[in-house]
TrEMBL record:
SUPFAM superfamilies: beta-lactamase/transpeptidase-like. Gene3D superfamilies: DD-peptidase/beta-lactamase superfamily. This is Beta-lactamase family protein. Residues 34-359 form the Beta-lactamase-related domain. It comes from Streptomyces galbus. Residues 1-29, 222-245 are annotated as: Disordered. It holds the Pfam family Beta-lactamase. It comes from the Bacteria. Coiled coil: none annotated. PANTHER family: D-ALANYL-D-ALANINE CARBOXYPEPTIDASE, D-ALANYL-D-ALANINE-CARBOXYPEPTIDASE/ENDOPEPTIDASE AMPH.
Length: 362
């Protein structure tokens, strides 16, 4: 067994209280932080890059890139954050549990298809959100179906009904809860489970329970070719990519947002008491699973969690066909970092490592 899972409802104690505003003696000053952000923008080597940092609510933003500046300032564009969308879905599940809409322990297949589940997986929302449902990263026939549109819109070849059907017919090799395996498939299913449990589509649930209460007006959950959206690029940094359409994988990768909206989202995790989602925001910072050698890899329902310095760092990265994102925050420093860029990751791509290292080394 590579991980153990502990479910979270009702636990409001903050695992990493945010200290009162103030600085360590060795904390970098604002000028040094600005230099670090500028250096990170240059290192990313992408057509459009934004590194945005919040420290005790004070923001610093640095933009740049190898391409000519777009018509709208880079910091005002909406960027595709790919798998970092899972941090929104994990928070949504936690909020719905706190509201009593579901417990997290229901059988997902029953919620999706009450009359047709005898041999379906016994995974629950708790298993799906912790990547312990026994599912592969993608459905077995995903690549075959997506191949005709691989370079433009592969996920559109796998719509919502197909995701649900693939889950209901899948026979896990391992019992749910006994093995950790990162799964976009599992999070996609989770989104449809939440829709089935509430009678409201995932996108509308996110808008009602997260975007509205947190004031995230610069965030979108549907693809669109507008002047507000950043244009992704292939690995060459030149060839444009179409706006990302997640097909039936909305809950695993649909969010696109401005850097400032993403900072607002992270600042809510740093100061939950200032928001209508205080209980859920505290809960998603609690480790619910440990895995790996010595059980040193920690996970919450929304974030990867690593021990750094004198505290913990929470983070999630993501990528689409032509964009990348990194979201992270450190309660011990009252600091959050958003990094976005418009270039598909390459071998030894520096983007995520640069963002991770910048936040970890503060």
């Amino acid at each position: 067994m590579s991980g153990r899972t502990v479910l979270w409802p009702g636990q409001d104690r903050d695992p990493d209280p945010v200290p009162a505003p103030g600085e360590r003696e060795d904390a970098p000053d604002e000028g040094t932080l600005a230099e670090l952000l500028t250096e990170a923008v240059d290192t990313a080597d992408a057509p459009d890059v934004v590194f945005a940092l919040s420290r005790h609510g004070r923001r610093l933003v640095r933009c740049g890139g190898t391409a000519p500046p777009p018509a709208l300032p880079r910091q005002d564009l909406r960027y595709e954050i790919g798998s970092a969308t899972k941090s929104f879905t994990g928070l949504l599940l936690t909020e719905l549990i706190r509201r009593g809409v579901l417990t997290g322990g229901e059988r997902a297949a029953v919620l999706l298809s009450p009359e047709n589940v005898p041999h379906a997986s016994r995974a629950t929302p708790a298993h799906l959100v912790t990547h312990t449902a026994g599912l592969p990263g993608l459905p077995g026939d995903f690549y075959r179906r997506a191949l005709p549109a691989w370079s433009t819109a592969p996920f559109t070849r796998y719509p919502s009904e197909r995701v649900v059907e693939a889950f209901l017919r899948y026979r896990p090799r391992r019992e749910p809860g006994t093995h950790w395996h990162y799964s976009n498939f599992g999070f996609a299913v989770l989104g449809h489970v939440l829709g089935a449990a509430t009678g409201v589509p995932w996108e509308d649930l996110v808008a009602e329970h997260l975007l509205g209460p947190l004031g995230l007006s610069g965030t979108s959950l549907r693809p669109g070719d507008t002047d507000l959206d950043a244009t992704g690029r292939r690995k060459d940094g030149v060839t444009p990519t179409p706006s990302f359409d997640p097909g039936g994988f909305q809950a695993a990768g649909a969010v696109r947002a401005t850097p400032h909206d993403l900072l607002t989202f992270l600042e809510a995790h740093l100061r939950p008491g200032d928001t209508p989602l205080a209980g859920a925001l505290r809960s998603v910072r609690r480790p619910v699973l440990r895995r790996g050698r010595g059980l040193l890899e920690e996970h919450t329902v929304s974030w990867f969690r690593h021990r750094v310095g004198g505290g913990a760092m929470y983070f999630h990265s993501g990528a689409t066909l032509g964009q990348q994102a990194f979201l992270g925050f450190r309660p011990d420093l009252g600091t959050a970092l958003v990094a976005v860029c418009t270039r598909r990751f390459r071998a030894r791509d520096p983007f995520v490592a640069t963002a991770y290292g910048l936040l970890a080394d503060l």
